Amino acid sequence: MTQPPGSRAAFAPAHITGFFVICPHENPAMAGSLGCGITLKAGVTTRVEVGGSDGSDGSDDSPCPTIGSVVSRLTRRPCSVRITSDIPIGAGFGASGAGALGTAFALNHALSLNLTASQLTEIAHIAEVENRTGLGDVVAQSLGGVVIRRTPGASARLDRIRTDAKDIFWVVFDKMSTKEILNDKSAADRINPAGMESLHELLKMPTVENFMIQSRRFASGTGLMSDAVSDAADAVEAAGGMASQAMLGDSVFAVDVTGGAGDAIESALSEFGSVGRSRIDFRGARLI
What we know:
This protein is α+β, with helices and mostly antiparallel strands and 288 residues long. The protein is 37% helix and 26% strand. The strands form two sheets. Strands 1, 2, 3, 4, 5 and 10 form a six-stranded antiparallel sheet that branches. Helix 6 packs antiparallel against helix 7.
């Protein structure tokens, strides 16, 4: 597709966190989280246009303050940002991180800034941390796959769980405020010990199956799992899949771990609401 001069588009995958550990730091580049999550072929497409007559400084056209923060860090020139999302918003799919990262990639190209992928990831990560919209989505979305975050921050040490392309399903029940939970000290006191235990157990056997086991144990143990998600996860397991809660959202996500239970999982989840379906993304954020 031909794009106008000064215009560029980028894609960043959704990221569903299964469990995490909050790691605060006075330097937002070093703040973040430990944990593990799955990136999806479904995600967010960001289109930027620089210097248009209807453009702005980013704040008017950006769908969220996190994206506006990325724009302001990269340019003072008038520009517009258009977001197209095929994932739920505010439901634990890393939409704000995907939008921030895609904006960074697209603006870098449109403005010929010649920043590296690591530099762009850091800019998007800082914007997420400062706006309290996420802690570990951006670094995982920059890589793709089933990503273990072994250290926090924009330069996190990342590992990938080796797996083939599996189907991922979800149902969203309600929105959940990431900012409220991240600002709640009592929640952090429950989350961090459970998250460290899940990470420790996953590293003993880094498989998708064990990731799902540890994710469900984390969701149940922290009290974050809603009754609706618990019931849906039980139905998925009865259908031959594995399921847990997307962090941080009132959403169930399920994995067809065997490769043969997809239709049964989708049918089981359809009793709880509209079912989304995608596959694991292995490419990470990229220009399109």
